[in-house]
Amino acid sequence: MKAFFTNGDFFKSSTFIKISAFLFISLAFFYFGKHWSDGYQQLIFFNSRQNPLTSSQITPTVSLSPNHNKSFDISSLIANTTTQTLASIPPPSDPEPLPPPPPPEVQRFRIVDENGTMTDNFEIGDFDPGVAEDWGSENTTEAVEESRAVVKKFGWCNESMREYIPCLDNVEAIRGLESTERGERFERHCPEKGKGLDCLVPAPKGYRTPIPWPRSRDEVVFVVLICWPKVWFSNVPHARLVEDKGGQNWISIYKDKFKFPGGGTQFIHGADQYLDQISKMVPDIAFGQYTRVAMDVGCGVASFGAYLLSRNVLTMSVAPKDVHENQVQFALERGVPAMVAALATRRLLYPSQAFDLIHCSRCRINWTRDDGILLLEVNRVLRAGGYFAWAAQPVYKHEPLLEEQWEEMVNLTSRLCWNLVKKEGYIAIWQKPSNNSCYLSREAGSQPPLCDSEDDPDNVWYVDLKACITRLPDDGAGSNVTTWPARLHNPPDRLQSIQMDAYISRRELFRAESKYWSEIIASYVRVLHWKSYKLRNVLDMRASFGGFAAALIEHQLDCWVLNVVPVSGPNTLPVIYDRGLLGVLHDWCEPFDTYPRTYDLLHAAGLFSIERKRCNVSSIMLEMDRILRPGGRVYIRDSVGVMDELQEIGKAMGWHVALRDTSEGPHASYRILTCDKR
């Protein structure tokens, strides 16, 4: 056989020729049949009918269909034959019943077997994060339906609203106040529900990117310059402060710039020299070590806080929106922490024992009115053992009226158990006691009294001032914080007093959050190049323990963070301040107390999945647009269920939005929405 194939005789045989001819004819018929049938109405078929005369002889023929080039009404043919066809079909017989399905296998979820002993052979049920998010929600359906809707583009607000602060510029509500003699008009009076902001607050014409820190500490550009980057005059288009305070070394116009010489009403020779004087008067103040967080009341353009930054001190500069209404706006434009706030009839939105030092330099506050109720509020937010520095005319001027004011101040501070540590020149410095022993040793009926033991000194949202002395914790919590920078990472004692559900050690939660954000910020710096963004003013909209802000400090980003603690969650502000950070309590169903175009970066982690159950998501996003600078960025880290709605709203506001996966990958329940405000 092998020889037969090798010699080639097989290919010459008649068998090979017959097989080849059969294959060739078969392929030819297939090709011609397919070719001539495509694109033609005629039907080509094979007819194998038998001849009736000669049943043994079969004559295969190929014929054209008799229906070639004819058209028929198929529907009529179907209609005529349907009845006959159905009648000819016998009724179907009933199917045999199927056997019942086997009972489902019982799944047991346990770590104890039938004998009561521990076992590793157990199963864990599936977890649906949406159940936890929607738990107790009554408007889940509405939220889902809204997220699928396309949001119409928002229009621009009127030009007169360029510096609009909704809760402080509510003219209608302010006109309806029964009294304004205690400063009520400077407090929050938010628009009624449904009457809030529904448009985009425009930037001033010619708005440009602010000049970077620390150059912005000293100068702000007044008119157009060739140099870049600079802050143009139109960013804060007001020169009245120059007219009113130019002679006091606050602010001046030099050629084409706003200049900030660093002075103030009581420190006309500059803030640096003034801070040196305070340090010499009371060395224990120790800026940047013991004193890490300060508050400057009636801050002006915040030169006091601006120069403390170089000494590792964060200062909350506060002032009302009064006749010098743009002083806080100048501070924020310089890149200095500041808020619009007033000591009037309600508690400040900061926790008890928040500040290591509180400073007032000609702040125009009558501390002794109403039996010292305003100084009692300062006492509440001043840390045990902290200092109050007062630079004012009653300290050094010997006029009858001013001397009387000084005596009233000394009498009040003595009843508060404050110790006058030093009085030198035009500065007086008191120290708050570190425990309750002095308060408890006062004579019966002494005024002001101690606050009730059930009073929560950290409850501040729309809470009226109280004419009583805030008690200090018996365990010394709040007064025994470590020095900076160790306090940034040490879990403080007040961590244990936070009202929250914790099933593991709170210290472990604290450390876990710090590690979590440190790793995330490291990836942001490495992958997203955060250090190239030149961030300065940052707002964390749901701060928890302040881990996000701590991570920015750890990775040496030259910015400051205002940590917002929503009223809808645990009040963690005491922990934030004990770490040496700044924070404030807020309800995101209402507008925020700051000027438009304040922040370079807004960060929101897990905010919308919580607040959408009680707030209008569009209102929160519009408020974010108001306080975000043109060119600013937004990072939203939240559940997948809210991302569609947030993307639609962001696009409707003109933001450039992009959805990113987290480090857990595309199947994680969370996403990151990055937004750029053009």
TrEMBL record:
<protein>
    <submittedName>
        <fullName>Uncharacterized protein</fullName>
    </submittedName>
</protein>
